[in-house]
Amino acid sequence: MGRVNFGRYNNDFKGLVSNLTLDQDTLIEWEIYPLDIDGAVNRDINGNLDQPTRSPGDPQSYEAPTFYTGKLSIPEGIPDLPQDTYINFPGWTKGQIWINGFNLGRYWPARGPQMTLFVPRNILVSSMPNNVTVLELEHSPCSTQACEIEFVDKPNINATTQHESYAPQLFVRDIQLNYL
Questions:
Q1: Angle, CA 61 vertex, CA 177 and CA 132 arms, to 5°
Q2: Which residues are 87's β-sheet partners?
Q3: Greater pLDDT, 123 or 59
Q4: What ranges in the chain are assigned the alpha helix state H?
Q5: In this predicted structure, what is the pLDDT of residue 160?
Q6: Computed from CA positions of residues 99, 137, 139, 56, in that sequence, does the dihedral angle turn out positive or negative?
Q7: Which of 68, 69, 93, 110 could form a disulfide with 139 if both were Cys (CB 3.0 to 4.6 A apart)?
Q8: For residue 132, pLDDT beyond 80
Q9: What single string gives the DSSP state of each residue in 114-165?
Q10: What radius of gyration do the chain's Cα atoms show?
């Protein structure tokens, strides 16, 4: 997803660089609008997340861009907690994750090579629940298995999975968080 900025491949264009077509028809008079990522993440941090929004006619779709939110509580009184950890995304496809408003980065297991993301201990707190927000862009596991992400103690950095593409829409849902 980066850009080549040297050598003969310096013309590494991203985004729409020609007409947008659907089948053989050129699409015209269409609109581009920004997605308020910061607003969605900040609403979760402040405890004011609105009711989930769903597309008309398909209230149970898990195949669209969706914000998933959850809270992770770390027990107080246990020495050496919190510690550095990793997040694993079993069944998730591609997206971004924030913990307590801090953007950990992008996950994309199908492209790898990392299957887990590093979570530094300084963004986790034990004095109150940690807010976790996931923006899944393509397909979550929520319709076929548990809607979970996993906190694990070892990274998985050399694997890939199969990938399928799905049509975009936007939802907000809750996830379960497991600390393994």
A1: 25
A2: 117, 151
A3: 123
A4: 37-45
A5: 52
A6: positive
A7: 93
A8: yes
A9: -SEEEE-GGG--SSSPEEEEEEESS--GGGTS--EEEEESS---S-------
A10: 19
pLDDT of residue 49: 38
pTM of this prediction?
0.67
What pLDDT score does 56 carry?
41
What's the CA gap between 162 and 91, in Å, rounded?
A: 10
Q: To the nearest 5 percent, what fractions of the chain are helix, strand and coil? A: 10, 30, 60
Whether 38 and 46 have beta carbons less than 8 Å apart is answered as: no
pLDDT for res 19 = 86
Closest CA to 176 of 151, 144, 152, 159: 151
- Structural domains in the chain? 20-53+62-179 (2.60.120)
What is the pLDDT at residue 102? 92
pLDDT at position 50: 38
Q: How far is CA 3 from the centre of its chain?
A: 22
Ramachandran class of 86: left when φ > 0, alpha when ψ lies in -120 to 50, beta otherwise:
beta
- For residue 94, is pLDDT > 50? yes
Structure tokens at 80: 């050496």
